[in-house]
Fold this sequence. Notes:
This protein has 493 residues and is of the alpha/beta class. Helices cover 49% and strands 12% of the residues. The chain contains 19 helices and ten strands. Helix 3 links the parallel strand 2 and strand 3.
Amino acid sequence: xxxxxxxxxxxxxxxxxxxxxxxxxxxxxxxxxxxxxxxxxxxxxxxxxxxxxxxxxxxxxxxxxxxxxxxxxxxxxxxxxxxxxxxxxxxxxxxxxxxxxxxxxxxxxxxxxxxxxxxxxxxxxxxxxxxxxxxxxxxxxxxxxxxxxxxxxxxxxxxxxxxxxxxxxxxxxxxxxxxxxxxxxxxxxxxxxxxxxxxxxxxxxxxxxxxxxxxxxxxxxxxxxxxxxxxxxxxxxxxxxxxxxxxxxxxxxxxxxxxxxxxxxxxxxxxxxxxxxxxxxxxxxxxxxxxxxxxxxxxxxxxxxxxxxxxxxxxxxxxxxxxxxxxxxxxxxxxxxxxxxxxxxxxxxxxxxxxxxxxxxxxxxxxxxxxxxxxxxxxxxxxxxxxxxxxxxxxxxxxxxxxxxxxxxxxxxxxxxxxxxxxxxxxxxxxxxxxxxxxxxxxxxxxxxxxxxxxxxxxxxxxxxxxxxxxxxxxxxxxxxxxxxxxxxxxxx
Length: 493
């Protein structure tokens, strides 16, 4: 795609100054309309080293209200996400509704640099960042209502060399250390091929690339304004309609997955006490070994109200080092969380290498409570099956141990536990009006659970259904499953 940019086009300073005021007013007005409609925008400025991205970005910023945007750079290290899956940083940096995030070097920086380094090492060197992961990320954002504008500033090798000389005269020989750029003056041909192939592979309908000629700074500034304003205007007109999303599997009948489990399974109190201590001690040792090998783990708990999630988590963590794990309770989204993609809050809690994150309720709320309570459109929760599978597959490829539990009880057992909570003073805080309301929609939730298990139990992230009518059996199955999965992860070379 790079060859399509006309590097010979010119624009004099006088010509640009004549249109500059109009451009600034136009983009400022559009920013205010974006805020009113609550549309989040991400603008990526990528391109050659020394393509003067900073100058182009500054010209755009001159027309924006500084309270409504933030500029970031992937070229600068982020200690908060160091060691986490590559895309974590960009998920956590997502702008809220009505705000703008601008990147001077985006997530493509890591992809470009990784490809360049790998190409110099050997032709078949393994990449740390993959274009497909980027495509998945960008599609999820676009489907989630984000406007994504991707700009690549293209210059010739001759212009790059001239710009490098000017930058060195202005800032000194070490100028590139200031903004994180690692100048590769002798790699133009190699990088041309990498940039061109990557842009081609990631140019999608909802995440389109705009290659802008930047031989002439005024041309680059004018074209950048034009691209950004046109894309925002299109979004404001609601011309970007959601696809009529349907899974191919929708034609299939969803089986009654839950009916295949024997809820009469039970364990005696003596057997429970003996095995509980055994598994807790084993998990204590396994946690240390995971930390030693820098293996991260995510343990996700879902289940009916009063199915025993909290009790299982307490037994699971009883002897673990509290420094090496955290429990993340997931409730109704906060005002801030509602301003972001529904997966945003879960990426905030990614475990660092050697650590364990335990979710008490999870991202599956999208296809359970949000589906049943009609909090989102049907196409949104249906699309979530794919998005969740993609996300979990990415986590597994990053080496994270992922264990998903559904704690299953029957309706009669739930009623008995609700009554027990009502009649026990120390437990009354556990029962709420919402619990009773959810129970009244048992059949709807059961249908949603069956479909969730059917569509999201994958080879890389299978569901473990725990027969939980008997709490002793449920707790031991959870501990045994976690211990077995940790053992498997530690056994891998």
